[in-house]
Amino acid sequence: MTTKKINILKFATIIGSLLLILGSAAYGSSRGGSFLPQRNGSIVKDTVIHPIENNVSLGDKIVSFGMTLLGTPYVEAGSGKNGFDCSGFVYFVYNHFKIQVPRSSSEFKNFGKEIPIANVKKGDILLFLSPTRKVIGHIGIVTNPKGMESDFIHSSSGREMKVIVTSLKKPGYTRRFVKAIRVL
């Protein structure tokens, strides 16, 4: 066999190995893990490695998941994809990440750790008075932390009657704002 043919075979072998590794990695990542080549050339399935996702905070993931529910109708006492009330929305989103939170907005009064509004992060929860009574009657999840100008996602029983993003600087919410809490 000529040197040229041997080099072509070596090249083909290397390319074939790379394709096998890349194909295995793609297959593994689509199945919740990855296949990584070891020093001896064997391929071993390892634990789940998603370097980009690992740089995303849990708060970011909560907000991203909540945003997939934008437009879902407001339904009194609702806590599923067919419709939510405000606490049902927060409950559903947090439950998706296996985080236990109360089901009723009034139960958030003594739940979590109160934090200054200036220190809120994505995924923190804002508590508001009811429009008609002096009790916690509405809650939402911070999406864009900016102190008293933070944006939050919530299931609105107002004019919109659906899951929306609203700014805390909106007078109706500024006036009713009680506190921010962290449960993460």
- What fold name goes in the CATH topology slot of the largest domain? endopeptidase fold (from Nostoc punctiforme)
Please identify the top-level CATH class of the largest domain. Answer: Alpha Beta
* Low-pLDDT segments: 16-53
The CATH superfamily label of the largest domain reads endopeptidase domain like (from Nostoc punctiforme)
Radius of gyration: 24 Å
Family: Belongs to the peptidase C40 family.
Protein name: C40 family peptidase
Pfam families: NLPC_P60
InterPro entries: NLP_P60_dom (IPR000064), Papain-like_cys_pep_sf (IPR038765), Peptidase_C40 (IPR051202)
Folded structure, characterized:
InterPro entries: NLP_P60_dom, Papain-like_cys_pep_sf, Peptidase_C40. Belongs to the peptidase C40 family. The structure is a single chain. The protein is an alpha+beta fold. It folds into two domains: 50 residues, no CATH class; 127 residues, endopeptidase fold (from Nostoc punctiforme). The chain has five helices and ten strands. The strands form three sheets. The protein has a six-stranded antiparallel beta sheet. Strand 3 and strand 4 form a beta hairpin. The radius of gyration is 24 Å and the shape is globular.
